[in-house]
Amino acid sequence: MSLLDAMPGSTKRGMAQKLLTSEMGNALLDIVARAEHQLVESVVDLQRAADLADEERIERVIPPEDRREQLRSLALAKLEGRFPEWWVVNCSGVDNAEEATEKVGVDWEAQKARWADLVRENGAEGDDVVLAESYCQRRYGCSLKQFRHLVVEWPEGDDGGEPREAREMRAVAVGGLSQAKETIDAVTAELDGGNDE
Q1: 129 and 109 in contact (C-beta within 8 Å)?
Q2: Are the C-beta atoms of 139 and 146 separated by less than 8 Å?
Q3: Does a structural domain hold residue 136?
Q4: I need a labelling partner for 54 at 20 to 30 A (CA). Which of 7, 94, 152, 161 fits?
Q5: What is the pLDDT of residues 12-54, one digit of tens each?
Q6: Beta-carbon contacts of residue 144 (< 8 Å; ≥ 6 apart)
Q7: CA dihedral 84, 89, 93, 95 (to 10 degrees)
Q8: 185 lies in which domain range?
Q9: How many structural domains compose the chain?
């Protein structure tokens, strides 16, 4: 057993948090962010040279400083046990996202009833689902179904499936690399297709 294995989880988390906010942590995150940025920029040049269709192009290259901070905040959120809330604010696209974080993991049926009651207080009448849908659209800019998927439900992964938190975290952590790979694959397919004629 190593010294690290013998440490309580809170001590490990504290050490990781200090590393992420230290000069060394900043340097490591900066290296990763800059390397990703250089790769994605090269892929943008490649897609331009290959005259790739607009729908297959990378539209936005995140500046390395912003990406470094995104990776740091993602890691800190995970360490602090608040990754779903971080994801809702940074990735979900719902309106009033900070407020929406209060609904992560909420009892969904009770929440819909509360929203319906709020709408009724303003004189509206109707079915809970219809009123809750109206509230959700106005307040969060999405349907009840979308809100439930984007904000409320964070399944652990049944039947050997991967937990949503792990999937979403990976998608953010390797987003630039995944985007670059997809574009390289599209350019390769375009060039291969051009050779068949």
Answers
A1: no
A2: no
A3: no
A4: 94
A5: 678 888 888 889 999 999 999 999 999 999 999 998 888 888 8
A6: 112, 129, 132, 133, 136
A7: 120
A8: 3-92+166-195
A9: 1
**C-alpha count within 13 angstroms, C-beta hemisphere, residue 66:** 7
Q: Are 131 and 115 in contact (CB under 8 A)?
A: yes
Q: Structure tokens of 129?
A: 């689902």
In-domain check, residue 53:
yes
The pair of structure tokens assigned to 11 is 């001590």
Q: Where are the alpha helices (DSSP H) in the chain?
A: 3-6, 9-21, 23-49, 64-79, 83-91, 97-100, 108-121, 128-140, 144-147, 164-173, 175-195
The answer to whether position 118 is within a domain reads: no
Segment 111-170, tens digit of pLDDT:
999 999 999 999 999 999 999 999 999 999 999 999 999 999 998 876 668 899 999 999
- Give the Cα separation of 104 and 159 in Å (integer): 23
Structure tokens at 89: 């604010």
